[in-house]
Amino acid sequence: MKHVTQKDIAKSLGISQQTVALVLGRTESPLRNRVKAETARRVQEKARELGYVGNNNARMLRQSRSNLIILLNFYGFSEKIGRQINMIGRRIHEAGYDFRALEVEWWMGDVEFNIEKLMGFRPEGIILNGPPHLPFETRHFEELIRQGIPLVSFGTGVLGESRVNHNAKDPIFEITTNAIRAGRRRLALLMNSDHSAWQNLEKIAGFREAILKAGGAEPQRRSLNYSFPSNSDTLESAILVDPSRAFEEPGLKREMEVAEQILNSPNPADTLVCSNEKYAIGVLNVCNRREISVPDALYVSGFSNTSFRTHGDEFLTSVEQPVEAACEAAVDILLARVNKPADKQPPREERIFACQVIWRKSSPLCDSSNPTFISQPAETTPQIAL
């Protein structure tokens, strides 16, 4: 079979070879940014159609080993991400491989370019920490897959490839159900603007299921200053979405602004199920300033059980994710495939790990048979990132 070259692609499309090289070649030329998106798309599609292998990386991968495992982190940095990177790196080093974590911000149009740069490292395996959004199409990673580089991901991952994840639906269902059993009638799920992320969709599903199972109406998306109906006998719910990207900003300024908007409502929620710890801590800060009693006037819960979960005399109910077990699983799945021939590859797999609700004073556990509260925190030792 004839080896396909950039010249062949250029001829089939009726464009210059230089344009094809700018799209497919390993170049930092500023001229690359001048190639129209439609032209780049046509070149990439034609390259896939003809089976083009565009650079020397494929030959390098066949001829030598890099002994390198790469983690691509799409989530930015947080205590949880730091723990994940630390644990994954340690396990990979223990297995005798080199490890490199790369912070990435990919967007449509540049995915193939970043894949090409990634190929320059000649990785023996890749762990994707994310992506946080709905599944990347397999075509974005098809060059890596074609070269037989194993992929494993946390989160949504690549269609058809192995992944590891946490079950976010069940703990949110449990927290919401507990609040309803305790007599709460105005419940809100507080989300960030990344509400299409796979794990956030699970959180919405858990909240929705708890509300519907208790006889409430379908939860609707509302503004942060939404005022609940004043009829306290009716179960009411709302999904409050922060339109900003507060989760990407340092500090708690935006989270406290969000809490102020919610609590400024004429008839605010009596339960706030927060999709992350920062929102919950922001709410507790504002409640302290305003002398709003937690949990008497307001139930609050977070998600991730990070080390800053305590706040003054309040202990935050949160969700503990089995980060270490998930990290070990991701590495084990990846290493089971590294350097295995195509005919001996283990099947792709998905492992979902259960999360645990850690009940504390901010949203105490209600005994369903006798609505009295457990006021002692379940445990108080912070989980510190290494």
Fold topology:
Blueprint: H1 6-13, H2 17-24, H3 37-50, H4 57-63, E1 68-73, H5 79-94, E2 98-103, H6 111-119, E3 125-129, H7 142-146, E4 151-154, E5 162-166, H8 169-181, E6 186-191, H9 198-213, E7 220-222, E8 236-241, H10 253-263, E9 271-274, H11 277-290, E10 299-301, E11 310-311, E12 314-315, E13 318-320, H12 323-335, E14 350-353, E15 356-358, E16 365-367, E17 370-374
Parallel strand pairs: 1-2, 1-3, 3-4, 4-5, 5-14, 6-8, 6-9, 7-8, 9-10
Antiparallel strand pairs: 11-12, 13-15, 16-17
Helix pairs in contact: 1-2, 1-3, 5-12, 8-9, 10-11
Order of helices and strands: HHHHEHEHEHEEHEHEEHEHEEEEHEEEE
The number of helices is 12
Biggest beta-sheet profile: 6 strands, parallel
Q: How helical, in percent, are the residues?
A: 25-40%
Major beta sheet, strand line-up: 2-1-3-4-5-14
Q: Report the count of strand segments.
A: 17
Shape label: elongated
Overall mean confidence score, pLDDT:
80
Rg result: 25 Å
Q: In terms of structural class, how would the helical and strand content be classed?
A: alpha/beta
What separation lies between the terminal Cα atoms?
52 Å
List the uncertain runs.
56-63, 369-386
Beta fraction of the residues? 15-25%
State the oligomer: single chain
Description:
The chain is an alpha/beta fold. The protein contains twelve helices and 17 strands. The chain has helices at 6-13, 17-24, 37-50, 57-63, 79-94, 111-119, 142-146, 169-181, 198-213, 253-263, 277-290, 323-335; strands at residues 68-73, 98-103, 125-129, 151-154, 162-166, 186-191, 220-222, 236-241, 271-274, 299-301, 310-311, 314-315, 318-320, 350-353, 356-358, 365-367, 370-374. The strands form five sheets. A six-stranded parallel sheet has the order 2-1-3-4-5-14, covered by helices on one side. It has a five-stranded parallel sheet with strand order 7-8-6-9-10, with helices on both faces. Helix 1 crosses helix 2 (17-24), helix 1 (6-13) crosses helix 3 (37-50) and helix 10 (253-263) packs across helix 11 (277-290). The longest helix has 16 residues, at 79-94. It is elongated and about 75 Å long. The model is unreliable at 56-63 and 369-386 (pLDDT under 50).
